[in-house]
């Protein structure tokens, strides 16, 4: 059984990017700059953004962390995004989700210049992705593709099952796995909250490649895994645990211990897709630095 170790695969991606940034510096050029906006102080969002900024530093990118408290108004956020859009030294902009309830996520995402949308959430970039055009692929599905590439996991002609249809993970993942490219060409079934449990079990049992992005800890059990399947567990949930130092443990959407006995390959949680998401984000930031798709 192969552990799809995100530390190893993301280190390979980051080493390439570091080399590129070192060459830029040696040539006297500026390096790509990622601006991250964080609203409020939710523990999970703090951790994700801190990790993104730290990875930028380690890989030779410039980064700025822009903080707002959770009382920030939508128009204050929009004007900060406008300022970053117009700043020629900022290449990538990300707004850490979720945002407080009084702010419309869609409005914020659509305000980001699609040329700087390194999370790949802007409808224009999603449109390009659906049509198979070169674009910013949403960072988490991009990370999964990079993982499949690194570990040479064949996808062509395989049955890939994606559980979860969110705009940031499940839906783009299902489109990418079915698209015409080296980590695509799978035939894909997408399941979601309205897939009856009995149907879901039957479908998951047929999966050569299973991607789970549901957010329910240990939702997928070993008895519905096809022997030899490749398992990509996107789920990250903090489960309270008094015996843990931080008072919680991170759980994936798959029961790792049991499923790893049936699968041929599996991503650990933590240490799997989360690290690849950052690799995808950094690759998108380098792409944004190199050129624009849209011209005003
Ligand atoms: P979401 O809540 O937006 O979407 C969850 C999806 O699961 C929905 O599409 C829903 O239809 C589906 N679902 C819910 N109950 C179901 C059921 N009983 N059967 C089948 N489908 C069901 O979540 P999301 O943003 O896609 O995130 C999913 C998980 O992935 C979360 O744990 C999140 O923390 C994690 N995540 C991890 C990364 C990473 O980098 N590893 C990135 C983004 C999200």
How does CATH name the architecture of the largest domain? 3-Layer(aba) Sandwich
What fraction of residues sit in β-strands?
15-25%
Structural class: alpha/beta
Q: Which CATH class of the largest domain?
A: Alpha Beta
Number of helices: 10
| Gap from first CA to last CA | 50 Å
Number of strands: 11
Which superfamily, in CATH terms, is the homologous superfamily of the largest domain?
NAD(P)-binding Rossmann-like Domain
Identify the strand order in the major beta sheet.
1-11-8-7-5-6
Alpha-carbon Rg, integer: 19 Å
The amount of helix comes to 25-40%
Mean pLDDT: 97
For this structure, the CATH topology of the largest domain is: Rossmann fold
Q: Order of helices and strands, N to C?
A: EHEHEHEHHHEHEHEEEEHEH
Task: Give descriptors for this structure.
296 residues; alpha/beta; Rossmann fold; six-stranded parallel beta sheet; 16% strand
Describe this structure in words.
The protein has 296 residues and is of the alpha/beta class. It has 2 domains: 29-113, Rossmann fold, CATH 3.40.50; 139-274, Rossmann fold, CATH 3.40.50.720. It contains 10 helices and 11 strands. It has helices spanning 6-26, 43-58, 74-86, 105-111, 123-130, 139-150, 170-178, 197-205, 256-259, 273-290, and strands at residues 2-3, 33-39, 62-68, 92-95, 159-163, 187-191, 209-212, 230-233, 237-240, 248-251, 265-266. A 6-stranded parallel beta sheet has the order 1-11-8-7-5-6, with helices on both faces. Helix 6 (139-150) crosses helix 7 and helix 6 (139-150) crosses helix 10. The longest helix is centred in the N-terminal third of the chain and has 21 residues, at 6-26. It is globular and about 55 Å long. The relative contact order is 0.16. The model has no long low-confidence stretch (mean pLDDT 97). Nicotinamide-adenine-dinucleotide (NAD) is lined by residues 140, 163-166, 168-170, 191-193, 195, 200, 213-215, 234-237, 273-274, 277.
